[in-house]
Amino acid sequence: MFYQLGMTSFYGPNFLNDLAELGTNMLPYTVEHFQQFFKNSPTTALTSSPIWYEERTDFSLNQIGIPRPSHPETHGYLALRGQGRITGTLLGGCLDSLHDLIYPVRYQDEPAIAQKYQLFPQDWTNKILFIETSEEQMSPATYRTYLKHLDEHGVLKQVKAILVGKPQNEKYFDAYQHVLLELTQPYQTPILYNLNFGHAYPRGVLPYGLQTTIDFDNCRVTVNEPFFADN
After folding, report:
1. Cβ count within 10 A of residue 190
2. Is 54 exposed, middle or buried (0-12, 13-18, 19+ CB in 10 A)?
3. CA-CA distance, 167 to 151, in Å (whole number)?
4. Domain that holds residue 193
């Protein structure tokens, strides 16, 4: 709804999962990117975190002050397809939720409401699609189905490139890559994989609608505009 109004909103940290982290501090990577809200830099580099963290399985009081299980990042950003630099504006979200706007899964009336209020964008030209998967960790078969439904709505054909968030706990890490390459093969869509946004930890900030450049040769992503306008 914010996007339809021409407002920039943000896909990033939230209160309960990030600011209220049960460890003694917010995750360092998330702090670094959260501070961009206050710096409002002319450009913002979206870098790969050197560490990734597992989701918690215990949220009881005795976990306060206990750090999340963590692992060294051994992959970094992965260019699954593409070369050179591609620039477009960011648009996307959680694949589960995007799909719910066009096909009834949880709520039978959701697609009708989304269509009435035009909540699912129709124009994806010159867009960089960003997608990730929720804590439900959908199977590769479901992943394929959801992406096919996006394709049926013209999304995969129109977008200039795709940014893909790290799967939570790295589950289906390889299988998702195969599905992405398969379904985008007719369009040869450039894809950069394993970024730190979405449901996996840690997470940075993606601003809706701002111009962004992907350097596929060096696996770098840069938001080319400040998060907030001066006027």
Report:
1. 21
2. middle
3. 21
4. 10-54+64-223
Residue 15 lies in a domain: yes
Q: What is the per-residue pLDDT for 229?
A: 87
In the chain, what's the furthest Cα-to-Cα distance?
51
Place of tokens 């982290």: 21
| Two structure tokens written together for 212 | 């962004």
pLDDT recorded at residue 231: 63
How many domains does the structure of the chain reveal?
1
**Distance set, CA 195 to CA 73, 83, 152, 229 (Å):** 11, 17, 25, 26
Q: Is residue 230 assigned to a domain? A: no
Q: CB 110: neighbour CB atoms within 10 A?
A: 17
State the average pLDDT over residues 81-106: 96
CATH classification of the domain holding 197: 3.50.30.60
| Residue pointed to by tokens 């409401």 | 113
What is the rounded CA–CA span in Å between residue 197 and residue 13? 9
For residue 59, tell me if it sits in a domain: no
Mean pLDDT value across the chain: 96
